[in-house]
Design goal:
The protein has 246 residues and is of the alpha/beta class. The protein has ten helices and seven strands. The N terminus is likely disordered.
Length: 246
Amino acid sequence: MSNLDLFSGHADLYAQFRIDYPPELYDFIYSFVKEYHRAWDCATGNGQVAGVLAERFETVDGTDISAQQLEKAVRKPNIIYLPCPAEQTPFPDRQFDLITVAQALHWFDVDAFHQEVRRVARPGAVIAEWGYGHNRVSETVDPVVMDFYLNTIGPYWDGQRTHVEDHYARLPFPFADAQRAEFSVRRSWTADRFLNYLRTWSSVQKYIRQHQSDPVLLIADRLTALWGPEERDVSFPVFLRIGSVR
């Protein structure tokens, strides 16, 4: 379902306020990788993952259906960006040693994407798919955010969001030596930084398009008062599944 582009309209926000991923996640993935010639970061968005992979791989290809996202992407001499869907790429057969998808698999036609993975992966290549769930801040802030998530913008989430909530448990993963792992992202943010992160949610952007108003403003004052002027620790649980393409 990668024709569903929910992120082009707020590429600037996405580039500035989405989270990145911990070194431990990449180290875990690299422990399975045998060669470091070429990697494909699918649904690369602002190139956040591609930029990290480029530190280890000779060449990294980053694809996304959003040309606006790719315009904001990290630039490195060994990264090649290409607008195309996940399920149908122009890559030759047997190109990649590693294929990654971060916080995007639930938007795909998963079976078609995995078929494309098997076509473009070298024998023994690694496929890593991950995402992250509900953040945690404090006992006072979390209920405000959860009420916003479930009730204010709950009707504006696309149905695929449920796959993130259950850690892709219902999405197929037909690869050898499949494993799962969990990590944590911890960031120190102000209330304003956190509110801008909320504005990157696809549901918030859908609300804005339909109502011509920003739903984050409905909780901004209350959340800011609870948060206080200081930075607070924000944690995100990250789930990953990884396997080998035979």
